[in-house]
Amino acid sequence: MDIAQAASxxxxxxxxxxQSTSVPLDVEANVQTHLRFVEAAAxxxxxxxxxxxxxxxxxxxxxxxxxxxxxxxxxxxxxxxxAQRTGMAITVGAPVNxxxxxxxxxxxxxxxxxxxxxxxxxxxxxxxxxxxTAGSAPVxxxxxxxxQIASAICxxxxxxxHAAQAAAAGARIYAAGILTSAKGYTAEAPLWAGYARxxxxxxxxxxxxxxxxxxxxxxxxxxxxxxxxxxxEATGTGEWLVVARAS
Length: 247
Fold this sequence. Notes:
Layout: E1 2-7, E2 13-19, H1 27-42, E3 48-50, H2 77-86, E4 89-96, E5 104-110, E6 117-120, H3 128-131, E7 140-144, E8 147-153, H4 160-168, E9 173-177, H5 182-199, E10 202-206, E11 222-224, E12 230-233, E13 240-246
Parallel strand pairs: 1-13, 2-3, 3-4, 8-9, 9-10
Antiparallel strand pairs: 2-13, 4-5, 5-6, 7-8, 10-11, 11-12
């Protein structure tokens, strides 16, 4: 696992993007990969850790109804224990129950204090509209370590209104798990930098480290400072731990 680390001038909160790879449809194997990343992040004092979109299952949309997870699911017990032991909040990607036949694409945050949360992807993309349900809440917002943090998932970050709503709600960190190709990254990275600069907030993007669901990921997970400058990044694909400190 490669490490990319940088610090902003004002050090207040340490966060990390996990550029992990997922075994398709194998939650147990992916939990073990997640635990490796959590242990590595703990060595760097990370307080909030974000994994890619659908990191626990891979991007297998048609199989999602059979892989629905929730914060108290038995398969996630090792991650809940790791959150408590390390004092780190951990955001993972998984299908979650929508109350209908089609699940949400979710971001599950497991917190050391036991107050877990779920954010459901609000803006769907392409074939996701056939296999999943759009979340009704425009952003997922919570506080941790004195920071207001907004969760986003992949295509959410393509909509300037999503980041603007997060900022209006008080977010100082905008954190997203994604799956994007090299072409997508080229178009989207200027948006992420623009959100950081316009709203004076740190932007974190955690991309897959390898292919997923037919997509060839670009990797290049990164963290942009509140001035819009890229302060830490993975230089390509593969497994990376990207760490930075937000003011």
